[in-house]
Batch of 2 targets.
Target 1
Amino acid sequence: MTVVHPNLDETKAKISARDVSVFYGDKKAIDGVSIDIPTEYVTAFIGPSGCGKSTFLRTLNRMNDTIAAARVEGEIMLDGEDIYRSKMDVVQLRARVGMVFQKPNPFPKSIYENVAYGPRIHGFAESKHDLDAIVEKSLQRAGLWNEVKDRLSDSGTALSGGQQQRLCIARAIAVDPEVILMDEPCSALDPIATAKIEELIAELHGRYAIVIVTHSMQQAARVSQRTAFFHLGKMVEYGRTTDIFTNPLEERTKDYITGRYG
Amino acid sequence: MSMALLLLLAIGLGLAGWLAARARAWSFRRSGTERLAALPSYHGWYVALWIVVPVLIFIMIWSAIEPGLVLQSVLADPAAANLPTFDFQRNALLAEARNVATGAAAGVYNPAAQPLVEPFRTALAEFRWIGAIGTLLIGFAGGAWAFLKVKPDFAARTKVERIVMAMLLLASLVAILTTLGIVASLVFETVRFFGMVSPIDFLFGLHWGPDPMANAANPDPTRYGALPLFWGTIFIGAIIAMIVAIPLGLMSAIYLTQYAHPTWRKWLKPLLEILAGVPTVVYGYFAALTVAPWIRDVAQAVGITNASSESALAAGLVMGVMIIPFVSSMADDSIAAVPQAMRDGSLAMGATKSETIRKVLVPAALPGIVGGVMLAISRAIGETMIVVMAAGATANLTVNPLETMTTVTYQIVAMLTGEGSFDHPATLSAFALGFVLFLVTLALNIIALRVVKRFREAYE
């Protein structure tokens, strides 16, 4: 069913999904998706609206648990451990698999408190000094430190949209995750802010396994090395980003990337 | 009787005007080449309003002056010459004759009223005719004036809309003017009271015990210290009741919004809101007959011998239960209004449900929750029945919740229904108490609305 390009190099899978299906009540939203996601590369999920790419992304940190009617079948392994069935609970899972949302959603707290939130609930910092260090490091990695270091006590919601999104990335980084899921992180941002986020993804690449859902094919081409094309709940094609965009094997993929639909 | 007839007449005239104007506008539309500036029915409404509004104003004025005119014409009658000059008897006779003449009474009780019946009857009939003719004249005049303006290019729609707006404005002014009237009457009586007892004695005195039988001209200011009442009100309504209502209301709101299954919530929420619909008298029974004796028994069981069967605690506890719905429904609304994105953001960080609630949802919803608590407090301190039935009547400046205590509202009732004459300072003190209560609840409401408004601005 999924066409996988032959010239993928061997990588160790950080997350590996096998035959994953997601149901909303009786409706099947995701149908038998299998994919290996490595740490070395940024993986992009593309596809038309409603194709299930965001739904699949949310199964990777069990955010679908908050929807009562959603049910997941198949297995999803994080470092070989099944995240739905092993004794790992969602709190531990989400500390390892962070998420950035479509719309920046900083808490109505200070910038410092936003970043300190995760380390606090997971008990990462023994002292105020440790916490300060984590906050500074996270903001630096998110490329926000120089802009906010003099106003850490200002409200996070007072920042611009692009800064808010980088604050959310800093917040995710602060708990030192292994994977960062990004659900259309730039769709609410202007081109300049988008460029900054894309630069940031390039910098974070390699340190974390990054999965990004995007509507923009240019963005997928710019930031990712692996691309999966989703259509009607199925993963149609998966391969190196350059292969997907220059040499799609499936008719539907070709139609989508040439703009014939979606 | 004649009023009803006049009103019917007004409605009939209005209907006729409506039909005539509409027909005329239709005829323009059929014959003319020009487009009408408004729908025919708007022309109809324009004329109808020009008939009905002036006629109603006339009827209002007429019904105010007509009795006087009737009386004058009766007094001009020779039969009225030998009426007694003493006001009370004279008015009784006149009223009696009038009642017989209008048919409200079957016959005269006092034969002296009999000769006046006939003049009354003629005068009433005469003025009824005058009223009807006046109504017709004014209706026709208004209608004709408006009807002549019905032309194809006449902007009847804008005019009608403007009149409708004016009527709506009038309707909203009624409520505001009534409030102003209440405040004015309170202020007036309060000023009278403060003319007899100094505000300093009233607001800061420690002893409350007005004697309605004492000499009104020279009241004892030491008996008018309202501080124990203010304390009782705050202790029962803002402290004990809130200790019950805030945690219970908040926790039930959190349960309902975050944990309850949707069908369970669908049943529980209205059930909780029924609490707000129970008449306060019923809460009063419950407080007086069940809670207060129970508290006394418990207190005696643990060795407090002088526990009273009426206590601030009983009233406060029941009042707290009563205002749970105020707190919980405001808290519920404001927690539900926190964007889903906040919740997701926190959960995605690996926070548990309860951490998310404590650290993100409640702080974000805090202004709304505070607003709800303020409204609940202003409701609690204005509450009367529970206090009347369960807290007692003795003004008592104490922090012991097991003792009997009284509140501002209770004393207002007691002073107004007491034996004192109306201009006695003891009675007038009720107005001063009411005025203070009004100011406090007004302030609380304003603060609550401000706080809630700030919260709304943050999220919409």
Note: Chain A has one domain: 3-257.
Target 2
Amino acid sequence: MKKTGSQILLECLVQEGVETIFGYPGGTVINIYNDLIDYPIHHILTRHEQAAVHAADGYARATGRVGVALATSGPGATNTITGIANAYMDSIPMVVITGQVPTALIGNDAFQEVDIIGITRPVTKHSYLVRDIHDLPRIIKQAFYIARTGRPGPVLVDLPKDVQIATAKFEYPDKVEIRGYKPNSQGNPRQIEKAVKMILAAKRPVIYVGGGVTLSDTSQELLGFAELIKAPVTTTLMAMASFPKKHPLSLGMLGMHGTYYANMAVMESDLLIAIGARFDDRVTGKLSTFAPHAKIIHVDIDPTSIKKNVRVDLPIVGDLRDVLQKLIAELKLTPHEVKTLADDLAPWREQIANWRQTQPMSYTSSTTEIKPQFVIETLRKVTDDDAIITTEVGQHQMWTAQFFDFSQPRTFLTSGGLGTMGFGLPSALGAQAAWPQRQVIDVSGDGSFQMNSQELATLVQYRLPVKIVILNNNFLGMVRQWQQLFFDQRYSQTCMELPIDFVKLAEAYGATGLSTSDPAEVEAVLRKGLETPGPVIMEFKVSREENVIPMVPAGKGLNEMVLAS
Amino acid sequence: MRHTISVLVENEFGVLSRISGLFSGRGFNIESLSVAPTLDPTTSRMTIVTSGDDQVIEQITKQLHKLIDTIKVIDFTGEDYVEREMALIKVSAEDSSRAEALRIADIFRAKIVDVTPRSYTIEATGSPQKIDALIEILRPIGIKELVRSGPVVVGRGAKGWRSAE
């Protein structure tokens, strides 16, 4: 029996095991939406296409599965761009399906026509314009395969309306053959042997871990590797939850707002073992002074990440699971030498402990105003171990990374590469849709929250009990901090002069709103908010000009940290 | 340093924009780019002349490889290869310069492919250096129009490269 293109699309999604998608209907996807009613796919109607893509992104980050978003042509498609770019920068597996005007009209400036393939080319891993219904099953199969394999990323499929209406026999291919795409998953054994030699010769090694560990679900392998050689581990923002922060070998985050001891350890190290990280400028600071004494081993699935920003002494291209397992196996061949190494690193660990003691992560507490860091610390105290925390972008994001002790992978969803304000609420929505029973909390600032606050409606409609913590300082705090430190306190356009009544806002959508400016009430408000069924906004009016410290000013070396505000 | 890179790609809609977009988006330089289908009509072969230090060239080849539609990338620099470019050059051929233009074309083993009372169109093939030299010699006579194809290259020796491995 023949099926229409829109039915074939939905059949393919079912074959791929897709249970939940996020989207927004419109003229060129109306056929897909019509058929959707007949398929066992749960669709969540967000209030903006950007939020649909962020929700699919949050769903993917929280589960490791491919997130799926659906939008109409023209403005629907352009609204997805920020979401796609965000997923691309953080290597999130995602398939975005957009409707397109009929093939005969493409190029004619038809109503709601836009060249979305052209517009999104630099921010997608790959994209397809489906011109023939017979290609559709192969394209969808390839799209999912490309999105989740190798270095994951978003794939866009643009589906013209006439292809959705056309009919064909449906047959889903069981194999993927792409001659130009064969991701290399096996680490080269000779490179691994060399790496082991370098590791055994190191006196001051640091393991520097990036989002690759999260994406490949290899936090257990990482833990095994680190504990075997007893080397300190620092994580990027993207790897935050993939190495338990309370672990004795953990240095916390490195980089612009990293810990003093992580940055000092990197600067003094003689061997940097980079695992699934890409030496982003927010991590390295000034490149010419970065880790000056260190040899660098760089393990990554993506060859283009290697030697892009820094010189590398030993590149290893491969899947982290394979490489870490091989590294561990190779090290275990010489148990005596490994034991000696682990013992010999004692002075190095002691040096780091000293740095930690002289400059621990801290803030000045207050009994009169709420310190934002205190809210984050208290939040950790009152949440479940497996609570999923999302953030927006700005000061609250950095405080969350600094003061929340993450212990389980895929529990910290944040926009790292693109730095997208407005990511936190919709990504929390996606994570909650994936895990209805877990606590999902969006930590937000008053500025970021207003970039996608319309999604409160989606949360209430679908009974997604996301809790929202707003650290309200009536400022675009991070930019204000830069203006204070580097622009003579000229606060140009960073004061959010209109105070928003977030309690009333929550109530307008049928959610619950709580608010306090009293430090003594912080814990009680958090507890009450978490216990209240349904979506809840917990607003904390925090000290307005608190800064994120330490801070490496842009363009400075990692050892040139500003340590006090 | 100048590098000549051959790229075998899927002969598909939008591939050229993916390649050129990669170069412009990442700030890589393109001196020339030529593209046409190969013996296998499902693939096209591009010849890209670019320049940059070793690190930039390494990034260029890796980034080209990373594109899903790219099947194979070869940097011919340092290899033994034949490089040819074609130029069509319209020169003035008034009374005084008519014979001179012919003589120069002859020296460079170029052909006259179009003649008018006031001009010759010269077709020349050779290494980019030869084309450069021809242009310099013709310049005093008066070049009205110049079209260069950008070089194409092929490795020397009996072995050829095919689309599939």
Note: Residues 19 and 82 of chain B are 24 Å apart (CA to CA).
